């Protein structure tokens, strides 16, 4: 099984990127898990696509096509998810040879320095995932509130949070196995 991790925050010291890095280490060694860089992508523009898509669209479609499932990590921007994630969803779903997301398992993790853990973003992101026929894991729901207080000065996450993330990873693996077969 190959799982791709997509982080919506493009900020160098992104809390969601840090969470994704923790999650990446929680998978067993028999599952390949990689971060997928979406920071270089220009906004989707149909004029740049079609029979002769720009190189950036070709590159990300090739990369996304390698994976069996995906985990999305998003901050909350104005009660919604990160625009970088919407952009990659659109680019991949508009692939001239077909929607590369179709029928694959997904999970949404959100983290915020606020009290709600990006819950609005988490809920909002599920809608386009369903629209492109990704199959989101329903439980556990992962919203990490006050994320800035859950990491120590050495970049280690709180043990209780790590245990919760391990539970979510284990559930995602089971979710993915049911879909992938």
TrEMBL record:
Domain of life: Bacteria
Alphabetized InterPro entries for the sequence: Flavoprotein-like_sf, FMN_Rdtase-like_dom, NAD(P)H-dep_reductase
Occurrences of domain NADPH-dependent FMN reductase-like (ranges): 1-145
A Pfam cross-reference name: FMN_red
SUPFAM superfamilies per record: Flavoproteins (SSF52218)
Name recorded for this polypeptide: Chromate reductase
